[in-house]
Amino acid sequence: MSPLNIKKGSTSHSAYDLRDPNAQAIERHTLAVLVDNEAGVLARVIGLFSGRGYNIDSLTVAEVDHQGHRSRITVVTRGTPAVIEQIKAQLGRLVPVHDVHDLTVEGPAVERELALFKVTGTGEKRIEALRLAEIFRANVVDSTLQSFVFEMTGTSEKIDAFAELMRPLGLCDVARTGVAALSRGA
């Protein structure tokens, strides 16, 4: 309850509800961009985002066609539907860009991320970290008497959940690759 005994969100006609009823919701979109693999292309794509104040949640880049010298840039970003359409249109106008796909709207897609977690601890915390790693199907890729390094592949939400559970057990470092995604089906 607020000091005026008005329940928040109890009515959309409240004088205290200052949200714009015409505002569009912010959505998360995964974009796959096929580009020429040449110097400066990534800087141009990233410059498009930073120059217009768009944020990038995740960015993954790798060469996918060695003969054709093409790379795939997977970008996860957030915005209103209008902003996402603007980003796609502006990406499509860049000269080294061959294809722009919005995997979020084109149908089902598979998204995965790789992460490494360094967890320090001894005794019960060490045993609990190993138990949770088994539940999350994380692999131990390095082990010392004071620490473990776990490797895990999964959705961003799964990796976030594992990190939150490891935090009180001695999580001291995390490295993440960013999202890699492909559309499902033919």
Describe this structure in words.
There is one protein chain. By secondary structure, the protein is α+β, with helices and mostly antiparallel strands. Helix content is 25%, strand content 38%. It has 4 helices and 9 strands. The protein has helices at residues 41-51, 81-93, 124-135, 156-166; strands at 27-36, 56-65, 70-79, 97-102, 109-120, 139-143, 147-154, 171-176, 180-183. Strands 5, 6, 7, 8 and 9 form a 5-stranded antiparallel β-sheet that branches. A hairpin with a 4-residue loop joins β2 and β3 (70-79). The longest helix has 13 residues, at 81-93. The model has no long low-confidence stretch (mean pLDDT 89).
Keywords:
single chain, 9 strands, 186 residues, five-stranded antiparallel beta sheet, four-stranded antiparallel beta sheet, 4 helices, alpha+beta
